[in-house]
């Protein structure tokens, strides 16, 4: 009987404040969709870092004859065979180094032609202008500076380059977008909480006569507050469900179909459905608990029981 009464009161409250309840559902849905999207974006950046950092190398470019005439770092001339052997031996001694690959000027020229053969400048580039290099794969890509410190400025070395720098701007952009999404999510969350508090206040005011009678017959505070809390929780649950649908639809159209980023950007390791599904219970839980807690706090002020 009590459960039936509580459920009937929830239905009455939702019907009386249908417009505001709809606004709460939309606000909660958008804020939680942005929250889930921000979590997925952060995981995507982490996945891309793990994928690409494992593949990028540290490149040690050696001086050639052209560098000897123009580069101050190669003032002592082109790298000698002895210097190359010593550099390679020192690299292999380092515990942080996984593999070392030597690329000759001819190999560098061939790779350059494959990548930029259609450009105008490629027609005037000759093999003797290309630099020999050592491509070094590290066990921990974060320890690039150890290699840079050991070999930068060494005789026969023109420069030491970390290929992570090429990707860092992309990761910084994605992190910036993530922060922006969190900022918008925070704003939408504040709006949703204000709507919830206002909805509870209006609902409590419209039913002040019923709550007064319940107070007179000895109903407990929790029993009186329960319908209001359940109304807010139900609206939040619907908002969380809508947010989950938005996340699933977003993943489907952005990556698999529609825009189909997975086909257009095959070199990017996108997060899978398992990552999206793992976030849905958290979104639902927040959608359920956040309005309920907000309603409980609001009732202490607007419903004197």
Polypeptide structure, described:
The chain is α+β, with helices and mostly antiparallel strands and about 300 residues long. It has 11 helices and 4 strands; from the N terminus they run ααβααβαβαβααααα. It has helices at about 1-15, 20-55, 65-70, 80-95, 105-115, 145-150, 165-205, 210-215, 220-255, 260-265, 275-300, and strands spanning about 60, 95-105, 135-140, 155-160. A 4-stranded antiparallel beta sheet has the order 2-3-1-4. Helix 2 runs antiparallel to helix 7 (about 165-205), helix 2 runs antiparallel to helix 11 (about 275-300) and helix 9 (about 220-255) runs antiparallel to helix 11 (about 275-300). The longest helix is centred in the middle third of the chain and has 43 residues, at about 165-205. The chain starts with a helix and ends with a helix. The model has no long low-confidence stretch (mean pLDDT about 75).
Biggest sheet overview: 4 strands, antiparallel
SSE succession: HHEHHEHEHEHHHHH
| Tally of helical segments | 11
The chain-level mean pLDDT equals 77
Q: Could you give the count of β-strands?
A: 4
Can you list the strand order of the major beta sheet? Answer: 2-3-1-4
The rounded Rg comes to 31 Å
Structural class by sheet pairing and helices: alpha+beta
Shape: elongated
């Amino acid at each position: 009987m009590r459960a039936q009464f509580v459920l009937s009161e929830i239905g009455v409250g939702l019907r009386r404040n249908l417009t505001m309840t709809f606004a709460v559902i939309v606000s909660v849905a958008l804020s939680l969709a942005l929250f889930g999207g921000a979590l997925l974006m952060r995981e995507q950046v982490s996945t891309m870092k793990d994928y690409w950092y494992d593949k990028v190398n540290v490149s040690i470019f050696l001086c050639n004859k052209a560098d000897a005439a123009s580069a101050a770092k190669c003032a002592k001339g082109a790298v000698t065979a002895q210097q190359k052997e010593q550099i390679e031996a020192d690299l292999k001694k380092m515990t942080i180094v996984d593999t070392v690959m030597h690329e000759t000027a001819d190999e560098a020229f061939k790779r350059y032609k494959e990548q930029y053969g259609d450009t105008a400048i490629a027609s005037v580039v000759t093999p003797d202008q290309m630099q020999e290099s050592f491509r070094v794969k590290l066990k921990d890509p974060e320890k690039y500076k150890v290699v840079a410190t050991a070999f930068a400025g060494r005789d026969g070395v023109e420069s030491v380059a970390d290929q992570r720098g090429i990707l860092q701007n992309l990761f910084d952009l994605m992190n910036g977008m993530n922060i922006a999404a969190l900022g918008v999510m925070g704003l939408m969350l504040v709006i949703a909480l204000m709507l919830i508090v206002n909805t509870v206040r209006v609902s409590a005011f419209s039913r002040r006569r019923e709550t007064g009678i319940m107070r007179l017959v000895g109903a407990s505070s929790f029993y009186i507050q329960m319908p209001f809390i359940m109304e807010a929780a139900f609206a939040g649950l619907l908002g969380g469900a809508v947010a989950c649908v938005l996340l699933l639809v977003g993943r489907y159209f952005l990556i698999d179909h529609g825009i189909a980023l997975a086909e257009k950007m095959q070199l990017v390791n996108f997060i899978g459905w398992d990552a999206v599904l793992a976030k849905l219970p958290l979104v639902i839980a927040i959608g359920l608990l956040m309005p309920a807690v907000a309603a409980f706090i609001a009732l202490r002020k607007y419903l004197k029981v």
